[in-house]
Amino acid sequence: MPVAYAENSVADEHQSITAEIDSLDKPLYTPFVERYVLDELKQLRVDMAAQKNMLIQQILDREHNSVDRAVSYATDTVTYFFYLIAAATSILVLVGWTSIRDIKERVHSLADEEISRLVKEYEQRLNIIEQQLNQKTRHIEENREEIELTQEIQSLWLRAAQDSSPVNKIAIYDQILKLRDDDCEALTYKADAVLELGEPQWAVSLCHHALDIDAENSHAFYQLACAYTVMNQFEDAVRYLHDALSRRDSYREEIATDPALELLRDYGPFKQLVSVNDNLD
Length: 281
Known about the structure:
Helices cover 80% and strands 0% of the residues. It is elongated.
């Protein structure tokens, strides 16, 4: 059964990497290296958040400048309007003070209406800007939480890759599933560890749960084939193995050497499946 963390690596690269790992004298990862990477990621997140805040502040400054220019424009317009009215009223002085008083009241009314309209328009704009800022703030917070969750899950995957005990791996995969309960990869790798403990029924349950989340998960089909092989249900094992091969060609070489499928070596349909794969190669 495959134990590599990256499922998209081809079989040759997988064997080469496995050989290199086996030849190491000390663990590939250390807590110091892991802590360094996590600190760097955290600092990157902080820098990105600061940059976003700076951009938002620049947008606000530009909006405020636009508002100031618009208000200044409105004020100048009203002032020029008053100048025109003053010139007109000077001419109308000869007509009488009553006419001048009416004109003055009308001018004040028009000025108040215009100012009220401008104030209402810019209040609406400021409300829209405030809503956009709140939305962006929520997005930043959601991204921050997602980054922290991804860092924690990545740390757990590194621990699982370094641990050789199936019991410890199952405990780590359970921690990953508590953080992200729809992680198909954690479910299928947990099924792999469960099979090492001789619990095929448990592995079958985990694989079906993974297929409920992702019906095209090739690793879940492969683990089902291994589990049914252990339970001597060879017909179901070959059927699920065929489903796995139809979704991922890299299993073709693994099925011939995987010790979990050893009981299928003399089973006719399995031999036919292997021979068909050889012909395809």
